[in-house]
Amino acid sequence: MKKREPASPYYPIFLNIRGKKCLVVGGGKVALRKVQTLLEHGADVEVVSPALCPELNRLAKDGTIRAQQRSYKAKDLHDALIAVAATDDSKINEGIAAKARRRGILINVVDDPKNSDFIVPSYLRRGDIIVAVSTSGRSPSLARKIRTELEKDFKAEYAQLALIADEVRSELKQQGITVDSDAWQEVLNLNSVAELLRQGENQEAKEVIIRKLKAR
After folding, report:
1. pLDDT for the residue 8
2. Strand 82-85 to strand 44-48: parallel, antiparallel, or no bridges (unpaired)?
3. The pLDDT value given to residue 2
4. pLDDT for 25-72, tens place per residue?
5. pLDDT-flagged residues of the chain (< 70)
6. How far is residue 109's CA from residue 117's CA, in Å, rounded to a whole number?
7. How far is CA 171 from the centre of its chain?
8. CB-side exposure of 123: number of CA atoms within 13 Å?
9. Kind and range of the H or E element at 165?
10. Do β-strands 129-133 and 122-126 pair in parallel, antiparallel, or remain unpaired?
11. CATH number of the domain at 21-120, out of 3.40.50.1980, 3.10.25.10, 3.40.50.720, 3.40.50.2000?
C-alpha cells in the first residue's frame, strides 16, 4: 500500500472578517500591506505602533483605521478576531503571538509561518470568486507566480456566472426543484452560456441555465 504524504497543517478556509476587529502591530510598509488587505475585506482595523508610515498616517487621519501611536500592550488584543505581528523586532512579535494564542486569537507573524496560526495566501479575485494559492509558507514568491499564471486564463465572465448561478439556485429551491452537482457541472460547462455572458446577455444566459436544469 502506497504511503500517503503528510498533509499540510494549514486547513484551507475563507474567514468572514467584515466588521470584526483585526489588530495589526507595526507601522511600516509590511504592516501597511497587511492593513490594506484587511480593509479590502471589510475588517475593523486597529494599528498599534510608536510610529506610522505616511500611508498608515493618512488612513488614521481620515478615520479608515484606528491607530494607537505607542508601544504594544497586551490589552490591545481585547476583542480581536485575528492579530498580525508586523514589527521589526522578533522578540516583540513572539510575545504578541504567545499572548494572542493564550486568548484564543488567531495570530499571523510576518515572515514567520512556524510561529503563526494562519498564513495569507496569494489570491486573485473576480467579484465574489476568490482563487487562493499557498505553498504552506515555503515560498510566497512561488505562490505569486502560480497565481499570476492562473490570472491569464481566468475568464472575466466567471464573476457574473457566480451571481447568476446563485439566483438560479434560489429560484429553483423556491419551486421545490433539487438539482444534483453533476447536472450543475454539465450546465456550467456549456459554451453557449459562456458566450452569452461574454456578449453581456446575462438574462439569456440565466434562462438557458434554468431550461437545461429543469430538463434533466
Report:
1. 85
2. unpaired
3. 59
4. 999 999 999 999 999 999 999 999 999 999 999 999 999 999 999 999
5. 1-6
6. 8
7. 28
8. 17
9. helix 157-174
10. antiparallel
11. 3.40.50.720
Task: Provide the residue type at 74 as one letter.
Answer: A
10 Å CB burial of residue 194 (0-12, 13-18, 19+) is middle
**Sign of the C-alpha dihedral computed for residues 161, 162, 163 and 168 taken in this order:** positive
Sheet strand arrangement including 21-25: 66-68, 44-48, 21-25, 82-85, 106-109
CB neighbours (10 Å) of residue 139?
12
Task: Say what the pLDDT of residue 3 is.
Answer: 62
108: enclosing H helix or E strand: strand 106-109
- Which letter, b or e, does each residue of 40-69 get, where b requires 16 or more Cβ atoms within 10 Å of its Cβ? eeebbbbbbbeebbeebeebbeeeebebbe
Contacts of residue 131, defined as CB under 8 A and 6 or more positions apart, other chains included, come to 123, 124, 125, 147, 150, 154
Nearest Cα residue to 86 out of 8, 16, 22, 14:
22
For residue 124, the cross-strand partners are: 131
Separation in Å, CA 24 to CA 5, 89, 111, 129, 175: 35, 14, 14, 26, 47
Alpha-carbon span 83 to 113, nearest angstrom:
14
